[in-house]
Amino acid sequence: MVPVFWLVVGLLLFAMCGCARVQYIPVETVRVDSVSVPVPVERKLSRWEETKLHYGGFALLAVVVCILIGFGRLVYRLKK
User: Fold this and answer.
1) Helical H segments across 14-56, by residue range
2) pLDDT in tens, 17-33
3) C-alpha closest to that of 71 among 63, 61, 52, 57
4) Contact yes or no for 60/52 (Cβ under 8 A)
5) What is the C-alpha to C-alpha distance for residues 56 and 61, in angstroms, rounded to an integer?
6) CB 26 within 8 A of CB 35
7) pTM value surpassing 0.90
8) CA–CA separation, 21 vs 77, rounded Å?
9) What whole-number distance in Å separates Cα of residue 65 and Cα of residue 72?
10) What are phi and psi of 75, to 5 degrees?
11) Helix 57-79 with 47-55: angle, nearest 10 deg
12) Chain-wide mean pLDDT for the chain?
């Protein structure tokens, strides 16, 4: 029963405050003549930049650290 009460209160508040203040502006008053201006185009990203953007710097660092730890353990086992 409580949600119905708040729904009615919300609708009444919207009817009293929200609907009366909406003012529509005709489209003709908003239009402005536009001049085409050349916009610089972004360059294509390199493979490294795309990889870093896709995977993130910290994730890539974590992968490199895990590979180095695995390689270090392998070398340690072979020397033992």
Assistant:
1) 47-55
2) 655 566 666 666 555 66
3) 63
4) yes
5) 9
6) no
7) no
8) 77
9) 10
10) -65, -40
11) 90
12) 77
